[in-house]
Design a protein that fits this description.
- The complex is a heterodimer of chains A (about 240) and B (about 1000).
- Chain A is of the alpha+beta class and about 240 residues long.
- Chain A has two domains: about 140 residues, Immunoglobulin-like, CATH 2.60.40; about 90 residues, no CATH class.
- Chain A has eight helices and 13 strands.
- In chain A, strands 2, 3, 5, 7, 8, 9 and 10 form a seven-stranded antiparallel sheet that branches. A three-stranded mixed sheet of chain A has the order 4-1-11, with no helix packed on it.
- In chain A, a hairpin with a 3-residue loop joins strand 8 and strand 9.
- Among the domains of chain B are: about 150 residues, no CATH class; about 50 residues, no CATH class; about 35 residues.
- Chain B is about 10% helix and about 40% strand.
- Chain B contains six helices and 63 strands.
- A four-stranded antiparallel sheet of chain B has the order 2-63-62-61, with no helix packed on it. Chain B has a four-stranded antiparallel sheet with strand order 3-4-5-6, with no helix packed on it.
- In chain B, strand 7 and strand 8 form a beta hairpin.
- Chain B is globular and about 115 Å long.
- The two termini of chain B are about 50 Å apart.
- The chains are: A alpha+beta (about 240), B mainly beta (about 1000).
- At the A-B interface, strand 2, strand 4, strand 5 and strand 13 of A face strand 1, strand 10 and strand 56 of B.
- Strand 13 of chain A pairs parallel with strand 1 of chain B, so a sheet runs across the interface.
- Chain A: Its main location: membrane.
- Chain A: It is a single-pass membrane protein.
- Chain A: It holds the Pfam family EMC7_beta-sandw.
- Chain A: This is ER membrane protein complex subunit 7 beta-sandwich domain-containing protein.
- Chain A: It comes from Alectoria fallacina.
């Protein structure tokens, strides 16, 4: 990544050469296959844009990064300031096949190069890591998918439609019910029929308007006889109670 | 209303997905086409070469005049990889160098002060050496001994030395040694022969001419060995161009030069003093006008070389055997035409191939006998390629044992075609002449029968005449019937059994959807080409429209479509009218008459015809052609003094200056953009979610002016009314990098621009109170409305009189009535080098922004819905806003890969985009062009809603109908039986 050991000496010595040249090497994770030859890493800052094409080792090498002039040397006579000047670059990797994370690169006048993660707009979101001898590994966000798959016709998709599902279940009931009834043993069948009669949703005559066979006389009798009538006239009494 | 939200959400989600309308996998490479070009190959950098010692087949490599390095598959002419050695914006003067070491797997290229080594197989960088600004690499040579080193000779690095020689490790690029020369001589070349290294430099002789100085260096450390040898060449060598050849890479290094008049040929073995001299032969009394030396590049090949003499209209050659006594081996007879030779070697054998307009002749270097000979078809590739004269050729000869040979040659023609011929048969052709495109336009195909015209003719006649005319027309139409009936079964079957409708329609006829058009491209070489959008952008014609001086570039102002023809207007006032379907030049008018003008602007006259108005350097208007103009026609001119002027035509031919616009001090006007000529507006207002209307500010006269302050790093965007000159709106951005692309577009009632800026804002965070720097690429979208309130037309509503001369003074008290401007800024991940807008027939379809991303070499389409400045900020969208398609603002827009129109294709150096409506409202045709590539596609910004896609299965539809019919027929008797039974039971 950064072969800056020799430049470290520079930072200890008074800066004879105002702009030392530094090298920054980036590598991609080993599981990424060979990137297309058009892949380029780009350092951008105001007024400067440096490009590095991908090498055959799947790395990007920025040679001759110039560090800014050290402000300390300018007012060394005054001996006041201890700050170092910094050039901050945005690091983007333009690639046809992958999206890479965005980074920022600081090149300081003392020969230190720092790499850190940034969000769009160059806002620092990660820790600043000083680059050592090893290449800096840049992270891949995702591979780029350019195409949209066409939603093809499939009978299974059609069956997954809820409307179709409801219709199918309903149909199964209608068709299957008589067979189910036939296969029941007589006692169970009787019990079932009994239950159906009790239920409001019981089929046949009971689905007809209950008002049609409303036992007016019974109702009147129940009204007068109170609880006794209710128990004796079970069927119609139930109807009445519901109505009430 | 709140209840609506859950229902609306899926609709919005659906809308959102429809915004990200991507290319379907089965449509990619079908609806789009791409000419991946390199530029005209150069003679000294074009060769066949094996990418590595292990590979069996060789590739064709070239470094073009556009400094694009590329590897071509010789089988089909496709690009395997390419790299551009210069930025397109950068001016380059160097022709570049490309060298390949025999047996190595890398190529070394040099351009300007940089040397690159590339992997020959996949085109990835191996190493880079950068000499820094001011350096010029003169020569690069892979060392002869196993290709372990690369020698670089460069000049201009430091003031003390005139040139520096470096020895670089071929695999890492590490500098092993360097040796500088301070003699003040001009470096010419570096030669590696066997295990010796020589530098060749030119020393200005005392009186006149140049002396060739050869110095030997030790390969281990670059130290000088012995004295440098000075050849007495000063009597005939006057310029570098007279050195014909330097056998840098061959086993025997030798130097060939001639005098200015091409009278004698001098040959020297490098490292010795002896000079062999030969007289240049005359042929039929014709003197040579040019001499070219062809020698093998391989160090193992025989040191035989061929000298080609080109006369005015014939050529002849001699073959020499180089050795201790260099001698002429044999002569080659004179043939008419220009002709080209190429050299190829296999082991020690050297072959020369002669290419003329009619034949290819293969010869061995040992004797004059012809090994093989093939006739060449005089015209190939549909008559497009005419090898009348060949600029240069590269070839590869393979001996198949005995007397059979296979020869393939890549011929570069002056028209810009690059053709591969294999044993005399044309194999493929690449249209490298289409590089350097400067203008392009979509042109309709000529109508063959115009039904509308015929019907119009009928309506103007008497009833009987019209009836006779109609019957005649119908009878005439009948002649197409057999063909139509014949094709019908195939067509029906084809449409049911999938998308294969037979071979694509080769004929130049209009289609029902308006997708089939001709794209006319004008190049800086003065050529015009027609590309057929119906057949994957194939070149249907290619003509030389204007003849240019060497080094001159054709500047084209506009290409206008006319009935069956196209009019191409040059900046110098010249124009060419060509037939749009054949490229035949109908009319040519040179522009020499008006020399001093800076530019000319097209202006429409009263009848709608475009006329060119010359504009002088100072922004004033030259002589106006005689035509009827509408009173008040405004002409806007840009001048070198940075002032934009508006001129109006009143009665009389003299235009009057109406207004002047000067940007703020320190700013220069970069671009002046008007709304596109085809910019239909479907609705004058924007319907809001609550059924109110926000009225758009639709002014046909608005101009977008970009002004840059390079000193202060500012960019200001002005919206100007071109009738009155009033500034309607302006926005200034600080901290803008004016060296990076700043692009803008204007359409309908909105404008957008993109720039890179670095601004400081003080953040109030706990830890960092100091300033935070925002840095990045931005896209700004602004919309103009008549009023901020819905259902309000501002002051326009109540005004009965309106003046376009002073539209901003609507009120009597002089208050300005400016439109309400809504702006929003988005951070985008990459720079945009060009921006354009889709155009559809009626303008109903939401427009998309088409942007060229130079970094990823892509063309993307961004839906305007993402860039809507009305997106709610800091809160979620309300149900009403969701109904409009608005969603919460987020400052960052990432370019989704699915927006990429060019998908996996890589568009090199694209600089401009032209769009054209198709007959379908949903679809716009897009053509992108530039210095290198051409790309053609069509885009449906909100999906192809009026076209059945390939996913629509006609067969399935028919099968479903059939299944239903069968089911009904089968079930019908049962149902009838049940009904009858039911009736009886009841």
């Amino acid at each position: 990544m950064l072969f800056f050991s020799s430049y470290l000496l520079f930072s200890l010595l008074p800066p004879l050469i105002s702009a030392a040249t530094l090298t920054l090497t980036l590598s991609v994770p080993p599981h990424i296959p060979a990137l297309p030859p058009s892949t380029t890493a780009i350092l951008t800052t105001h007024g400067q844009r440096i490009k590095a094409p991908v090498t055959r080792r799947n790395t990007f090498v920025f040679r001759n990064l110039t560090s800014p002039e050290d402000p300390a040397s300018l007012d060394a006579a005054a001996g006041t300031t201890t700050t170092t000047a910094t050039i901050s670059y945005l690091l983007d990797i333009a690639c046809r096949d992958y999206d890479f994370m965005s980074y920022g690169v600081d090149v300081r006048s003392d020969g230190v190069v720092q790499v850190y993660r940034v969000s769009r707009g160059g806002i620092v979101t990660g820790e600043k890591v000083t680059v050592g001898e090893e290449p800096v590994e840049v992270r891949v966000l995702r591979s780029r998918e350019y195409y949209e798959a066409r939603a093809g016709f499939s009978p299974l998709d059609l069956l997954k439609n809820p409307m179709i599902l409801i219709a199918v279940v309903g149909l199964a009931f209608v068709v299957g019910m008589p067979y189910l009834m036939d296969s029941m043993d007589p006692e169970m069948k009787k019990e079932f029929e009994e239950q159906q009669k009790k239920s409001i949703l019981s089929g046949g005559a009971s689905t007809a308007n209950p008002l049609q066979n409303f036992d007016m006389a019974g109702w009147m009798a129940a009204k007068t006889s109170g609880k006794n009538g209710e128990t004796s006239e079970e069927g119609s009494g139930r109807d009445v109670r519901r109505r009430g | 209303m709140r209840l609506c939200a859950p229902i609306l959400l899926p609709i919005v989600a659906l809308l959102y997905t429809s915004l990200c309308h991507a290319i379907f996998a089965d449509e990619a490479y079908q609806i789009d086409s791409h000419h991946a070009l390199l530029g005209l190959p150069q003679a000294h950098t074009t060769f066949f070469h094996r990418p590595s010692a292990a590979s069996k087949a060789s590739l064709l490599y070239t470094l073009s005049e556009k400094l694009v390095l590329g590897a071509i598959n010789p089988k089909d002419g496709t690009v395997i990889w390419r790299q551009r050695l210069a930025d397109s914006a950068q001016n380059y003067s160097t022709p570049g160098l490309l060298r390949a070491g025999e047996g190595g797997d890398t190529l070394a290229s040099a351009a300007g002060g940089k040397v690159h080594a590339w992997d020959a197989t996949d085109g990835r960088l191996v190493w880079e050496w950068d000499g820094g600004a001011g350096t010029n690499v003169v020569d690069v040579t892979p060392s002869a001994e196993g290709g372990k080193y690369v020698l670089v000779i460069s000049e201009g690095e430091s003031e003390g030395s005139s040139f520096v020689i470096r020895n670089l490790a071929a695999d890492t690029g590490e500098v092993l040694w360097e040796s500088s020369d301070s003699s003040g001589d001009a470096p010419y070349s570096i030669v590696s022969s066997q295990d010796r290294i020589f530098t060749v430099s030119l020393h200005s002789a005392l009186l006149k001419g140049l002396r060739i100085k050869v110095t030997e260096l030790a390969p281990s450390n670059g130290k000088l060995i012995g004295q440098s040898i000075s050849l007495s060449s000063d009597s005939d060598l006057t310029s570098e161009a007279s050195i014909l050849h330097i056998g840098a890479n061959s086993g025997q290094a030798f130097l060939v030069w001639t005098d200015k008049a091409f009278k004698t040929l001098k040959i020297n073995r490098i490292g010795t003093k002896g000079i062999a001299s030969f007289n240049v032969p005359f042929s039929n009394g014709e003197a040579a006008e040019n001499i070219i030396v062809h020698a093998p590049r391989s160090p193992t090949a025989h040191p035989h070389f061929l000298v080609l003499y080109q006369g005015a209209d014939s050529h002849w050659a001699e073959v020499f055997h180089f050795g201790t006594d260099t001698k002429k081996a044999y002569d080659l007879p004179r043939l008419g035409g220009k002709g080209a030779f190429s050299v190829s070697s296999q082991g020690p054998d050297v072959y020369f191939t002669r290419h003329t307009a009619f034949e290819n002749i293969l010869m061995s270097s040992t004797g004059p006998s012809i090994l093989s000979r093939w006739d060449v078809r005089p015209k190939s590739h549909g008559g497009m390629v005419d090898p009348q004269d060949i600029s240069h050729a590269a070839s590869e000869v393979i001996s198949r044992g005995g007397s059979t040979y296979a020869v393939r040659s890549a011929l570069t023609l002056p028209s810009g075609e690059w053709e591969l011929i294999r044993n005399g048969n044309p194999y493929w052709v690449r249209h490298e002449g289409l590089t350097g495109a400067v203008a392009a336009a979509f042109v309709e195909l000529p109508k063959e029968e115009n039904l509308a015209d015929e019907l119009a003719a009928e309506s103007h006649r008497s009833v009987i005449a019209a009836y006779v005319h109609r019957v005649k027309r119908h009878v005439r139409d009948l002649q197409h019937f057999p063909y139509w009936a014949q094709a019908l079964p195939a067509r029906v079957l084809g449409s049911f059994l999938g998308d294969k409708t037979g071979p694509p329609d080769q004929s130049l006829r209009r289609d029902n959807f308006g997708f089939h058009k001709i794209v006319i491209v004008a190049t800086e070489h003065g050529r015009l080409a027609g590309l057929d959008t119906g057949t994957q952008g194939s070149v249907v014609w290619d003509v030389q429209a204007v003849n240019l001086q060497a080094g001159e570039k054709w500047q084209v102002l506009s290409i206008e479509a006319e009935q069956n023809t196209a009019l191409v207007r040059g900046k110098g006032g010249e124009f060419v009218r060509v037939k749009s379907d054949s490229g035949a030049i109908v009319q040519y008018q040179p522009g020499d008459l008006i020399k001093s003008l800076k530019t000319s602007v097209p202006v429409l006259d009263a009848s709608g015809e475009k006329l060119l108005i010359p504009v002088n350097d100072d922004g004033s208007i030259g002589a106006i052609p005689k035509a009827e103009f509408e009173i008040g026609t405004t002409i806007v001119t840009e001048a070198e003094d940075n002032v934009v002027r508006g001129w109006a035509l009143w009665r009389g031919p003299k235009p009057t200056l109406v207004w002047q616009f000067t940007p703020a001090s320190g700013e220069i006007v970069k671009t002046v953009t008007a709304r596109p000529s085809h910019d239909p507006v479907a609705s004058i207002g924007k319907a809001l979610g609550d059924r109110n209307v926000l009225y758009k500010y639709l002014n046909p006269n608005i101009l977008l002016i970009t002004a840059l302050g390079t000193e202060a790093s500012t960019a200001t965007f002005y919206i100007l009314d071109s009738a009155s000159g009033a500034i309607i709106h302006s926005a200034t951005h600080l901290g803008v990098d004016t060296t990076l692309p700043i692009v803008s577009t204007i359409s309908e009632n909105w404008f957008a621009y993109s720039l890179f800026s670095e601004t400081s804002s003080f953040s109030q965070g706990q830890s960092e109170i100091d300033q935070q720097k925002w840095k990045g690429y931005q896209m700004v979208m602004s919309e103009l409305y008549e009023s901020p309130q819905p259902n309000d037309r501002g002051s326009l509503e109540t005004t009965s009189n309106y003046s376009s001369i002073s539209p901003t003074f609507a009120e009597e008290d002089g208050t300005y009535d400016t439109p309400h401007v809504l702006s929003q800024t988005f951070l985008i991940p990459a720079p945009i080098s060009s921006i354009s807008v889709t155009t559809t027939l009626q303008g109903i379809t939401t427009r998309s922004l088409l942007c060229v991303l130079p970094d990823t070499k892509a063309l993307i389409s961004i839906s305007r819905a993402f860039l809507d400045p009305r997106r709610p900020v800091g809160r979620d969208a309300t149900a009403a806003e969701m109904e409009e398609g608005l969603f919460k603002y987020s400052p960052v827009i990432e370019f989704e890969p699915k927006w990429t129109l060019s998908h996996k294709r890589e568009l090199m150096s694209i600089s401009e985009i032209v769009t054209s409506p198709s007959l379908l409202e949903s679809t716009s045709l897009v053509f992108a062009f530039g210095d290198i590539d051409l790309f053609l596609t069509r885009v449906s910004p909100i999906g192809a809603f009026d076209l059945l896609g390939k996913g629509f299965g006609k067969l399935q539809l028919v099968l479903t109908v059939v299944a239903l019919a069968v089911g009904t027929t089968v079930v019908a008797p049962f149902v009838r039986k049940k009904q009858i039974d039911g009736t009886w039971k009841a």
